[in-house]
Specification:
Helix content is 12%, strand content 37%. It is mostly beta strands. The mean pLDDT is 96.
């Protein structure tokens, strides 16, 4: 991705956040130069990769496969000094975008429609060898438990949420014609390095073409103090 595209997507998400009255942490507003002044007291942000994240899953088709997100808080399963057992994210999925089918080995999460359009989340159980299971899927949405056939698209309107359990395959995309969606994620600790099982192997971070200065640094770009 071109840096100019990344900058534009971050600005678009900032506008969406402002429109829905959500406030983000101060570190999400720092410039690259401001980051150079931040000492070791901010290592939790660096070590746990808090802040801005743009993913195209290494496919180079961000407007089709990918989304923008902010990791607001997170623990760390590899570093003992970070004892939080939970994480929170804010995601922007544009109409026409989707996140690929995957499950988590350990993480349980709630995906919440924070505002905008409607999101469709496709659900499957997983077999022991990581294939789709054709059995019915038990779904929990805002205190209601119900069963749907494998491959059902669960529709979340603004304010609604779904609980995603370990080994539950899921993808998500925006319902056509409903507009961009701001999603929340509340979960157990997030570990993108070890806890994601994608149905089709893909990458994570984009390759960046530096055609302009960064507006915000991404979570894998912070300078060490």
């Amino acid at each position: 991705m071109k840096r100019s595209k990344i900058n534009a997507e971050i600005r678009h998400m900032e506008e969406m956040i402002k429109a829905h009255g959500f406030e983000i942490p101060p570190f999400c507003k720092w410039s690259a130069n401001e980051w150079k002044t931040k000492g070791a007291e901010y290592d939790e942000i660096r070590d746990n990769m808090l802040g801005w994240d743009i993913t195209d899953y290494g496919l180079g088709r961000f407007d089709e496969v990918g989304f923008s997100l902010i990791t607001i808080r997170n623990g760390n399963l590899k570093i003992d000094k970070y004892t939080k057992t939970y994480a929170e994210k804010l995601l922007l999925v544009k109409e026409g975008q989707m996140a690929p089918m995957h499950f988590h080995w350990k993480k349980m999460e709630d995906i919440i429609n924070r505002g905008g359009g409607n999101v469709l989340i496709t659900v499957y159980n997983s077999t022991k060898d990581g294939e789709f299971d054709d059995t019915d899927v038990t779904v929990n949405c805002d205190g209601r438990e119900f069963t749907v056939p494998a491959g059902t698209k669960v529709r979340l309107t603004p304010g609604e949420s779904i609980t995603i359990y370990p080994y539950m395959y899921h993808d998500f995309h925006v319902e056509e014609g409903s507009g961009d969606v701001l999603l929340g994620e509340v979960s157990m600790c997030n570990d993108d390095e070890h806890d994601n099982r994608f149905y089709e192997p893909i990458g994570r971070f984009p390759e960046i073409e530096e055609d302009e200065e960064p507006y915000r640094l991404l979570c894998n770009e912070y300078p060490r103090y």
